[in-house]
Each structure stands twice: as structure tokens, then as C-alpha cells.
Design brief:
Blueprint (H helix, E strand, L loop, with lengths): L3 H8 L2 H20 L6 H21 L4 H26 L5 H4 L2 H4 L3 H6 L10 H17 L12 H23 L8 H8 L1 H10 L14 H8 L2 E2 L13 E7 L10 E2 L2 E2 L2 H8 L2 E7 L7 H10 L9 H4 L8 H7 L3 E6 L8 H8 L3 E3 L1 H4 L4 E2 L2 E2 L1 H17 L4 E6 L26 H25 L6 E7 L11 H11 L5 H4 L1 E7 L7 E2 L4 E2 L3 H9 L16 E2 L3 E2 L9 E2 L3 E4 L8 E4 L26 E3 L17 H19 L9
Parallel strand pairs: 2-10, 2-11, 5-13, 5-14, 6-7, 6-10
Antiparallel strand pairs: 1-15, 3-4, 5-12, 8-9, 11-12, 16-17, 17-18, 18-19, 19-20
Helix pairs in contact: 2-3, 2-4, 3-4, 3-9, 4-8, 10-11, 19-20
Length: about 650
């Protein structure tokens, strides 16, 4: 039996001190990550797992318990801090898969620091203070240990710890077990606790059983997607034999096109290109942890990103079906151009798996006129044009992918590159810095287009331009930033807006100047290029569709939005535990409005974002005509099937080095 005296003496030790400390730290993480949380929720979800760890210290630690508590405090503080920073950058809860890529984060440390509010660092302040006290006491007393006041013997301490341990284990199981099937990682973390979610992802990391490789074919994929043919906007093979240039724009969101701030065009060159080309305003990113490298993967394979990790590390050892290999089979030279170190995000292995003949990285572009962590877009385009001219002179067409980098988060341009003067209200804000950076990026694109024309490449090429991923995550914006975004959109900035990027397709003399309203995603770029160039997809498995010949798209999303999120032609669906309690967002009030000129009237009335949201439980019956506005349960399940099929196929491919 436990006596009151034993319990009191147990609780008067480091157990209670560090419990109070961890309550404060977990509450800080919850305030940043979760909305409208009750005060008791972190106590109920975080404390049980913390106490389990503390009880293990009480069981096994001897004289140096305080140092053991302090070491554990450092580990748990690191997890909470990582959760805060990762959420601010990606909008999802960090797990051990992401932590394994921490070496990549150091390469974008400026982006991380820009998201760091100084008060986040208080999460480590107690560690320094307590360490200082312990060291000072150690020095003062020498090797002698100060005995605890009325110390509790080890046997009694273990007895108390065992009771608390059992109670905490039960509560942990009640937090974790009922919520393990939730689709949304945010919901899982809120119900399990951040620490419980981290433990769950480690202990329950058993991938879904893959679909047998011999059952996955294009007919099966097309049956799940249920696309329909439309009258071709451009004849199949109309751009056959032309060079293919794919330009991936860093952090370029769709709202930039046509945007004026106090009468100034932010992206005049890309605006002009969109007006003269096939322009898809309802186009969406499909990237994950690998961001830019994920976009390169999705565009070049027409497969989805993996459930965890960056595609460039998860799939780079596989014999990937790809656009470079498809074009090579038609006699094309292939090359990719990126000013950063090719080893960043394992691109050296990714490019080999994709089958590019050549890649050009920092070793070619150098560090001249550096912006962010590589040579400027001006250097990128000038030196790339030299290589493209050489490739055209070789006598066969080429496929070239160009990766721009200068407009990289946190959007800090050298003063000499700043040419957009924004109103005072935009100064020292994330949206303001973003617009200034994208204005520079647009100027560089204008130089690229002019260079293509001057060097005789323009009229003989197919140019495809798209954004790689979002630039302004909602969860990274402070109150003033959100007000500026409301001013730009004329309403609240939404999740659908956030992942909305443009796609522009132009082949001079072939493609008309036309805005196409059908929805599309990065997975659709490969089949669209294949359709224009006449490349056969007969033996090329793909999950995208030709946007010039097919409609009825279904776009699964992962990362930046909870897993299970999906778009169709009319709405975005974001799940909670699953379909039944998710929320539908009408794209009619999100990504499909014309961008208006922004004048100095930021206090104008805007529609609240809540008007855009419809709980899944109110979705009309699937048989009713109005149900077309929302994602049906069938569409939701088919989107999940597509993601699972993609991963199943890729993980069962042979290693790339075994390919003949």
C-alpha cells in the first residue's frame, strides 16, 4: 500500500518540477499548432506519456536522477520545438521520417529562421538555467553529492512510480487506440497528443499491403479515375518534333497572374505569356516533404509522392517510368538545369533514376550573382540558353527542364535586385517580400523568353511553365499578413488558394490564346506533353491525364493538407477522422475568381471564409443534382486508392541499377 507520506515525498522531488515545466512547453506547442483548444486537452494527452518517461527514470536512475530528467527534458523540448517549426513551414505534424531529413533543413536555414518567433526559444530556457544550477552546485560541493532532504528509499520510489506508470499507460492507450484510423495527421496529434502521435508513428509504422504489381495497369487506373474525353483543344501530335522546355517557377502561386498593387503589375511578363498561351488557372500542386524536388518527380513521372519522406530519397533507387525516358525513345536529348548542389535532396540519384542524359548544377552555374543559396535566375537562364543552343545545333530535338530558385522563401532579395516599389503597408511583411521576389523572378523569365527568341529557339519549341509549390502557407502568416492577403483576394485566403499554382502551355503557331477552366495537377503535365508531341503512352503507366483531351479530374493531396484531402472540378475536401466528419470547400469561392487590382483600400468588406465551408455530414445525397458541388464518398475513396496504387507500383519496381 502507498502511504500519503511516500506519495508526498515522491512528488516533492524532480517529478513535479519537471511535470510543471513540460506542461508549460506542451501548452506552447499546442497554442501554435492547434486552434481553439480547451486548457485541459494538453494535460490529458501529453502528460501521460511524459509521466511514463519520468516513471522509467524513477525506476532505473540512481543518484543522477536530476541529470536524467534534464536529458529527457532536452529530448522532449526538441520534439515540441520541431513540431512547432515543421508545422509553421509545412502545415503538418513532424514525424520521425521527416526528422531523418534534418540534414536537408540546414540547407534552408534562412527559411526556418524567418518563421522563428523569439518566444519559441523559451522552450529551452529552463534547460540552461537548471544545468547552470546543477553545475554550480557540483563545483561548490566538489565530488560530494548533497543528500536529498528525507530521501525516499528506492523501493518505495519504484512502488509509487509503478502506480503512476500503469495509470499513464491506460490513459495513453485510451488517447491513441481509438484515434489510430484518423486520416488527418493534425487530428491524430490533437487526439493522441503530439508526443503520443510521435510514438504511434514509430510503433505502428507498418505500410499498407501493396497491390500486386501484375494487377496494376493503365486500364485499372483509368477505371478508378473515371475521366471523360472532350473535344481536343489542340490536335494530338501538333508539336511533334519540337523542343520541349519545361520551366518550374519557385514558389509561384496563381494569384500572382494578373495581380496589380496600386496600379503596378507584379508579374507583367508571365501575365503576357498567359494571355498569349493556353492558361490553366485551376491548377494545383501535389508535392510533399521534398517540395521542389517532389515537383520535379511528379512532373517527370506522373506518379504521386510517397506516404512519408521525399520522393527523391524514397523512389530514387527504382527503375522509374519517366518523361525523359519517354522523350529519349522518340530521339530527344534530355537535360535538367538547377543552380543548387545536385546532392541536395538526393537529386544526383533522382536524375539518374529519371533517365536524364545530363544535369547541370552549381558546378556549371557557379556562385556568381548569388541569391538565396545559388546563382540568380538571370545566371540560370543565360547559361542554360547557351546549352540549349548547343543542343539544338546537335540536330535532334531536346527536352530540357529548368528549375528557377531566386524567389525562394524567405524572399530576401539583394537590394540591387529590388525593382518593385510597394505601398508602406507591405513593408517588412511576408506577402510584401514575396511580391518583390516574384517581380524579380518575372523579370528574369522575360529575359529567358527574349533569349529564346533571339537564339532561334522560340518558334521551334513547346514551353510549359508552372509553379512548383505554394509560397505563402496560411500557417506561416501573422495577422497583418492575413489582412494583406484578404486585400489581394477580396476575401479570406483559403487552403485551396494556398495550393493553387498556374500552368501555362505555349507552342508558337500551334496553341491558341485561351484560358481553360478544367482542373489539373502536376501529375497531368507528362500526359499533356505526350499528347502535344505525339509521344506514345501505350507502355507508360501514368496517373495524370491529358488536360487538352480529358476532363473529370480527381486530385489527391498529401502534405500541406491532411492526407485524404482531394479536389474535383468543383470543390476541395479535407477530412478529419475520415469522410464523415470532413469539410468541403467550394472552389467557386476559392481558386476560381478573377484576381482584381489591389488599391489602397485594404479595409474593404470581404466574405468570411466560413461561408466557403460545408461539413461533410451536410453533403447532399450522391444521387442529387446539387451533389456535384462536393466530393462524394466514392470520389474520396477512389482518391485514396489512386495514392495507394501509385506507391504500390513504385515500391515494387526493380532497382534502377538492374535496368538494362
Amino acid at each position: 500500500m502507498l502511504s500519503r507520506s511516500s506519495l508526498t515525498r515522491f512528488l516533492s522531488g524532480p517529478f513535479i518540477l519537471f511535470t510543471v515545466i513540460m506542461i508549460i512547453k506542451s501548452s506552447l506547442a499546442w497554442i501554435v499548432i492547434f486552434d481553439d483548444i480547451p486548457v485541459w486537452k494538453p494535460l490529458l494527452t501529453e502528460l501521460p506519456l511524459i509521466w511514463i518517461c519520468f516513471c522509467l527514470i524513477e525506476w532505473f536512475a540512481g543518484k543522477r536522477r536530476m541529470w536524467a530528467y534534464l536529458a529527457l527534458n532536452l529530448v522532449l523540448s526538441g520534439i515540441f520545438f520541431a513540431a512547432i517549426m515543421y508545422y509553421k513551414y509545412y502545415g503538418v505534424i513532424v514525424n520521425y521520417h521527416a526528422l531523418a531529413q534534418v540534414n536537408q533543413v540546414t540547407s534552408v536555414k534562412s527559411s526556418m529562421f524567418s518563421l522563428l518567433d523569439p518566444y519559441y526559444l523559451f522552450i529551452f530556457a529552463d534547460i540552461l538555467i537548471i544545468s547552470g544550477i546543477l553545475i554550480r552546485r557540483r563545483i561548490k560541493l566538489g565530488a560530494a553529492e548533497r543528500p536529498e532532504k528525507a530521501p525516499l528509499d528506492r523501493r518505495s520510489r519504484r512502488r509509487v512510480a509503478s502506480v503512476i506508470l500503469i495509470m499513464s499507460l491506460v490513459i495513453c492507450m485510451l488517447n491513441i487506440y481509438p484515434n489510430r484510423a484518423s486520416m488527418s495527421e493534425i487530428t491524430q496529434a490533437e487526439q493522441m497528443g503530439i508526443l503520443g502521435y510521435e510514438a504511434y508513428t514509430i510503433l505502428a509504422d507498418r505500410p499498407d499491403k501493396p497491390v500486386p504489381l501484375d494487377t496494376i495497369d493503365q486500364d485499372y487506373i483509368d477505371q478508378i479515375k473515371q475521366t471523360t474525353e472532350i473535344d481536343a483543344v489542340v490536335d494530338a501530335g501538333a508539336a511533334k518534333g519540337r523542343n520541349v522546355i519545361v520551366l518550374q517557377l519557385e514558389s509561384f502561386q496563381n494569384f500572382l497572374i494578373g495581380l496589380k498593387v496600386d496600379g503596378q503589375e507584379v508579374t507583367p511578363n508571365i501575365n503576357r505569356l498567359a494571355e498569349e498561351s493556353l492558361y490553366f488557372p485551376n491548377f494545383y500542386q501535389q508535392v510533399g516533404q521534398g517540395n521542389t524536388s517532389d515537383a520535379e518527380f511528379v512532373v517527370n513521372t506522373s506518379f504521386y509522392i510517397p506516404p512519408n519522406g521525399a520522393a527523391s530519397t524514397v523512389y530514387a533507387d527504382k527503375a522509374l517510368p519517366s518523361l525523359p525516358k519517354l522523350m529519349s525513345a522518340d530521339g530527344y536529348q534530355t537535360a535538367t538545369f538547377h543552380t543548387n548542389d545536385v546532392r541536395f535532396w538526393n537529386r544526383d540519384q533522382l536524375y539518374q533514376a529519371l533517365g536524364f542524359d545530363q544535369y547541370y548544377d552549381i558546378n556549371y552555374f557557379g556562385t556568381e550573382d548569388s541569391i538565396a543559396f545559388s546563382a540568380s535566375d538571370e545566371v540560370l537562364y543565360t547559361k542554360t540558353l547557351d546549352k540549349l543552343e548547343e543542343m539544338q545545333a546537335a540536330g535532334s530535338p531536346f527536352y530540357a527542364q529548368i528549375i528557377s530558385m531566386s524567389a525562394h522563401h524567405p524572399y530576401h532579395l539583394p537590394e540591387s535586385k529590388v525593382s518593385l516599389t510597394l505601398p508602406e503597408r507591405y513593408k517588412d511583411t511576408l506577402p510584401g517580400d514575396y511580391l518583390v521576389s516574384q517581380h524579380y523572378a518575372d523579370q528574369a523569365v522575360g529575359q529567358l523568353i527574349e533569349g529564346l527568341k533571339q537564339r532561334g529557339l522560340w518558334d521551334n519549341s513547346l514551353l510549359v511553365v508552372y509553379g512548383d509549390h505554394l509560397g505563402l502557407p496560411i500557417y506561416s502568416l501573422d495577422r497583418d499578413d492575413k489582412e494583406l492577403m484578404k486585400e489581394i483576394y477580396g476575401r479570406e485566403y483559403t487552403s485551396a488558394d494556398m495550393i493553387n499554382i498556374p500552368l501555362i502551355v505555349t507552342a508558337p503557331g500551334i496553341t491558341p490564346a485561351k484560358q481553360l477552366e478544367q482542373i489539373g495537377g502536376q501529375v497531368d503535365i507528362l500526359p499533356t506533353i505526350a499528347g502535344l508531341t505525339g509521344a506514345s503512352l501505350q507502355n507508360q503507366l501514368h496517373f495524370g491525364q491529358d488536360l487538352l483531351r480529358e476532363s473529370g479530374n480527381l486530385l489527391p493531396e498529401r502534405y500541406y493538407l491532411p492526407s485524404g484531402s482531394v479536389l474535383n472540378d468543383a470543390s476541395l475536401f479535407i477530412p478529419e477522422t475520415g469522410y464523415g466528419d470532413g469539410t468541403h470547400y467550394s472552389l467557386a469561392k476559392a481558386g476560381r475568381q478573377d484576381i482584381q487590382q489591389v488599391e489602397n483600400n485594404g479595409d474593404q468588406e470581404a466574405d468570411p471564409s466560413e461561408e466557403n465551408a460545408v461539413p461533410a455530414t451536410t453533403t447532399p445525397d450522391e444521387g442529387s443534382s446539387s451533389s456535384e458541388r462536393y466530393i462524394t464518398k466514392d470520389e474520396y475513396e477512389r482518391a485514396l486508392d489512386l495514392m495507394h496504387l501509385s506507391n504500390s507500383y513504385l515500391i515494387q519496381l526493380p532497382d534502377g541499377n538492374t535496368e538494362e
